[in-house]
Amino acid sequence: LRVNQEEVPENCSNIQDEEQDSDISKHRQKIAENRDQMRTNVIQEIMKTERVYIKHLKDICEGYIRQCRKHTGMFTTAQLSTIFGNIEDIYKFQRKFLKDLEKQYNKEEPHLSEIGSCFLQHVEGFAIYSEYCNNHPSACIELSKLMKQGKYRHFFEACRLLQQMIDIAIDGFLLTPVQKICKYPLQLAELLKYTTQEHSDYSNIKAAYEAMKNVACLINERKRRLESIDKIARWQVSIVDWEGPDVLARSSELIHSGELTKISKQGKSQQRTFFLFDHQL
């Protein structure tokens, strides 16, 4: 079959352009669908972990605390306060948070869910984690003392079985709030990655990510300062015949310590140990 070569290029280029446009359009659509799917996955993961976390908190409050309070011969109020901290307040707060999160969750099209505002509304409430995280080391110490006795080990295991809790020891359950507050910024960062700037939730997710990152940093900083104060208190107690005012009256952090040589006017030298605090030497 002979074809007039002169007439082909024009028609051919039009067909090629249309095919190219069609390919680009399909490619863009595929990218958008993939991003929507990834956003769906992240949203569903956030919802799932939130529901599992609420179940853990409920098990601690109803499975452990409630049973412990019944056994006044085994636990004092002070012991329970040390072991469980303000976890009941956290449970109450998280239930409200999940309820609001469920309202914003779009079951039919999860990628369209707008959950950023939930985090922003509750951001001040997350501050209660600070008290729990600061208390957690004391809780671990108190719990390990009790666990040396068989009756306490058996008691906590009986509580776990009675509540039909998953096979994790009590210290594992008590660690979950500490892990949770650190996980929020990671989840929001992942969600932000798959949220386009055109998405109605973009600005809220971005703001929520920054806010939750600040919450986690603030908790870590408070924890670090408390540990520093505790360290100074232990250091001062260890010094025999301490004279002068309490170091903690003016300082809260040991910056540096080391050996220095003191030389008198007569040229005599003495080795001294110096401690530099944030407001005194």
UniProtKB/TrEMBL annotation:
GO terms for cellular component: cytoplasm. Residues 1-25 are annotated as: Disordered. The keyword Cytoplasm applies. The keyword Cytoplasm applies. It comes from the Eukaryota. SMART domains: RhoGEF. GO terms for molecular function: guanyl-nucleotide exchange factor activity. Keywords: Cytoplasm, Guanine-nucleotide releasing factor. InterPro entries: DBL_dom_sf, DH_dom, PH-like_dom_sf. It is found in: Cytoplasm. Residues 38-222 form the DH domain. PROSITE patterns: DH_2 (PS50010). SUPFAM superfamilies: DBL homology domain (DH-domain), PH domain-like. PANTHER family: RHO GUANINE NUCLEOTIDE EXCHANGE FACTOR 4 (PTHR47544), SPERMATOGENESIS-ASSOCIATED 13 (PTHR47544:SF5). This is SPT13 protein. It comes from Struthidea cinerea. The lineage of its organism: Eukaryota, Metazoa, Chordata, Craniata, Vertebrata. The gene is Spata13.
